[in-house]
Here is the input.
Amino acid sequence: MKLFVDTGNLKEVETLAQLGILDGVTTNPSLLAKEGGDYRQILKQICQTVKGPVSAEVVATDAAGMVREGRDLAAIDEHIIIKVPFTKEGLKACRTLTSDGHRVNVTLIFSPTQAWLAAKVGAAYVSPFVGRLDDVGTTGMHLVREIVDIFDNADFATEVLVASVRNPIHVVEAARMGADVVTAPAAVIEQCFRHPLTDIGLERFLKDWEKAQAARV
Ligand code: G3P
Here is the structure.
């Protein structure tokens, strides 16, 4: 399973890229708005840092506007994936952009039928939002299992990109279910590193070593 970071923050991308664990980045209008500054420049720098797929979202709501914005975003860098919302207009735009040779991420997926319809129009990725489903009292990861099953049966090339990830359990479940990509905030990726027994174990190794060295002199 590939790991993307869900952020508009260049520093976070740089830090994770340096660790060699990062395959791509997803952004959305909320994340880029938080950064301020020139979003095109930020996206360009993120692309140059990660050198992998970077989703950038359109804000138009009609198909023609989405296509126009999508082409404009794609011109920023070859790594840009155009993100469109799951609406009928979004699907029309996805079809046009895909036939132009662009890769499209259809976002705001909350049901298996939405994922299936997006795959039918050639989406490169679908983004089920698991955390937001959990927030309203349903189990978001059930949706991922359904989409993975549907795509396996239909042999769609569309990748399942698990989004709105809130904790490492989402990451583990996504990997076990056979999702293609998980995109997580940097804080959740940080949690994936941590285990108190690793810290305690290392501390004990180092102390024992120091004690042995001191006994020798
Ligand atoms: O990038 C889209 C998605 O990951 C948003 O997550 O936490 O705002 O539901 P969240």
Q: What stands out?
A: The first helix runs from residue 10 to 19. The pocket of SN-glycerol-3-phosphate is lined by residues 6, 26, 28, 129, 131-132, 163-164, 183 (CB under 6 Å). DSSP finds eleven helices and eight strands in the chain.
